[in-house]
């Protein structure tokens, strides 16, 4: 009856809160890694950003729908491409100095 309905809402809210907490922890670890590496264009940062973006794509696909999951996947590809290009430019800049 009504208690099952409210209980399921509370469980869903707890699950959503746990997902947000995990996402925020992953996101803060990315920023900590950028601060530690002194550049966002390293392999470690790229790998960590890719993990966070894939996690976000999966969560969006499961919760908001396939359209948002696909859009997030495209954004993941764009961010990864930008980080690769930034790394290439940084290597070229280091070679010219």
Sheet-strand content, in percent, reads: under 5%
Distance between the termini: 72 Å
Label the structural class: mainly alpha
What is the element string, with H for helices and E for strands? Answer: HHH
Give the overall silhouette: elongated
Overall residue-averaged pLDDT value: 87
3D architecture notes:
With 97 residues, this protein is mainly α. The protein is built from three helices and no strands. The protein is elongated, with a radius of gyration of 18 Å. The mean pLDDT is 87.
Chain-wise SSE layout:
Blueprint: H1 2-37, H2 43-63, H3 66-96
Helix pairs in contact: 1-2, 2-3
Task: Please supply descriptive tags for the structure shown above.
3 helices; single chain; 97 residues; mainly alpha; elongated; 0% strand
Structure described in brief:
This protein has 97 residues and is mostly helical.
């Amino acid at each position: 009856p009504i208690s099952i309905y409210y209980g399921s809402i509370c469980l869903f809210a707890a699950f959503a809160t746990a997902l947000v907490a995990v996402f925020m922890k992953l996101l803060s670890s990315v920023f900590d890694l950028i601060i530690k590496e002194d550049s966002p264009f390293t392999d470690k940062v790229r790998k960590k950003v890719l993990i966070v973006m894939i996690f976000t794509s999966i969560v969006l696909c499961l919760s908001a729908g396939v359209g948002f999951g696909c859009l997030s996947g495209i954004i993941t590809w764009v961010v990864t491409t930008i980080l690769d290009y930034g790394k290439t430019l940084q290597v070229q800049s280091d070679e010219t100095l």
